[in-house]
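Internal ticket #5521
Category: modeling
Description: The requester needs a full-assembly model to guide mutagenesis choices. All entity lines are attached below as received. Residue total reported by intake: 477.
Assigned to: D.W.
Attached entities:
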Amino acid sequence: MGKGSSKGKAARVRRSALAAVAAMALAGGCAIRDTGSAEVWDPLEVPNRFIFSINQAVDTIAIRPVSVLYRDWMPKPAQRSVHHAVENLGEPVTAINDAVQGNAHQAATSMARFLVNSTLGVAGLFDVASSFGLKKSDNDAGQTIGYYAGVEPENGGFYLVLPLIGPSNARDAVGLVADAAIDPFGLAIYNLSSSTAYWIYAGTRYGVTVLDTRVRTMTALDDLQRNSLDYYAALRSAYTQRRAEQIRQKKEKTDTRAELERRDNLALVR
Amino acid sequence: MPSFVHRRIMLRLAAGAAVMAVVMPGLAVGQAAADQDPAAQLIQQTAARVIELIKTRTGEAREAGIRQVLESDFDLDYMGRSALGVHWNQATPEQRKRFLKAAASAEAHAYAERFGRYGGQTLTVGRVTKRSNGVSIVDSKLNQSDGEPIAIQWEVRNTGQGPRIVDVKIEGVSMVMTRRSDFNSYIQNHDGKVEPLIDELEARAKR
């Protein structure tokens, strides 16, 4: 009896070992796709590529030619002023995101930048605040979500290509909506005026932002397109890495600040 | 009482002095080390050579000169192999040779173009972080005339022939990782075979 049961047990162990190996082989089947660096999760690749190709077409036909004209014919100081004005409109939302991430100092700096540039800098056309030493923060709701999400910054959910906006992902798309919802200018115009006025404001601001951004990213994107075999994949990777870097910097800033605070506190304790 | 206080003050001063004695030389060494670190030196030398080339040569001569700098300061073979990722294992030795040749050529062309667009900005080499496997990360800033400085990180590896650059991260975007995603996607869209990739790279190298 003892022998029989031990044989049965051994057989069971062998079978479960086999099952474990089989399971690992199946899982290992996924490893065949592992390139040694985690690829961006893109379950919607087919619709994404479709929208990507439409974006590229619109870009080639409309946006890029206008951007090139703008870049070559608009005087550089005027281009800079347009850029500063657009950035200035975004400072309140940046300040809110700084605050939500717990970076009170940067939140105050961003608000100060907004006030200084809107007044002394003539409605944001001149970036006077930087010459006062007020550092600019590039912050948005997508980064805030990434800051608090308990995953590594590269993981932004599934990759998305948004029409006209371009590369994004689940996290950043939610961030875009959130930023639009809390935009003080938008809220003010929508509530004090009409929804038509809001859409005119949003459309104009977005249009100018697209132009400005297109000009500023033209060299980098051209480089990427020329030197890549699969521009869609290269852009997907570059976008994910860039966003991860931004979020990582926000997180590291906190760690540095926490460390400095700890040391300050230690110095107070005799 | 006064003697106690006196002793405590003296102890605290001594502790402070000890800390300073430890930290200050450390700071000085850190600075000197950064200046003498072979990785940081490599970056500074590369930047200096490229700037010299931009100033003195144009056109074909400039491209040839930049290619020379790339071949001596970058480890193009390592970068190519890194970009192929796990597909390296399924490539035959013949394919590997062809791939390395084509990838190195494409990479050199890309970097020559990027350096060629250099327009008098200054590169400030900063901190060097040493990792365990003989790799150093050199932080640097490319100062632009209009706008914020661009943060560039150089990954330098100790090969048999001295330190070589194996990756450039511009604002957190690694050139090698982007290339790896690019190649991986191309391979997967062509039945997981490496041959079409090599053919495409060779075709581009000929252009």
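Resolution: model delivered.
Comment from assignee: Residues 21-36 of chain A have pLDDT under 50 and may be disordered.
Ticket closed.
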